[in-house]
Write a structure and sequence with these properties.
about 130 residues; alpha/beta; Glutaredoxin; about 35% helix; about 20% strand; globular; disordered N terminus
């Protein structure tokens, strides 16, 4: 590892440390009913992301870096610019004001936790599942 790598934080990571989030793209209104049904058995997590927002990109990276393969939930990823209708439906269905970035945890058909912006990075998701 060279000096620039040490200064700028490049690290060699094991495959386990680099585990990828098992995102399910949220791309249709019909998926909201599926999320509602599945939330009866295990938590469903929605991350709403803005592809044009610098804060959203930073929060997404921090969220990915904190991912724990032991979290027992399904992860849905919603890009606001592509599917604003879905974001609006989420707000209406769950009574949660739209924000982005925004993280929602759904259990038994109800949002049991939500946060946005820097609050996402500060959340220990494992405690909310």
């Amino acid at each position: 590892m060279g000096i620039f790598d040490r200064v700028f934080g490049k690290r060699d990571q094991t495959a386990e440390q680099k585990a990828q989030l098992p995102w399910i793209p949220l791309e249709s209104l019909a998926q909201l009913e599926t999320i509602n049904e599945l939330s009866q058995e295990r938590p469903q997590v929605i991350l709403k992301h803005s592809s044009t927002c610098g804060i959203s990109r930073v929060v997404l990276k921090m969220f990915k870096d904190s991912y724990d393969i032991n979290w027992d939930c399904d992860f849905y990823f919603l890009t606001i610019q592509s599917h604003r209708d879905i974001s609006n439906s989420i707000a209406k269905q769950f009574g949660i004001r739209h924000e982005s970035p925004q993280l929602l945890v759904i259990k038994n058909g109800e949002v049991t936790f939500h946060t946005s912006h820097g609050g996402i990075a500060d959340t220990n998701l494992g405690d909310k599942l």
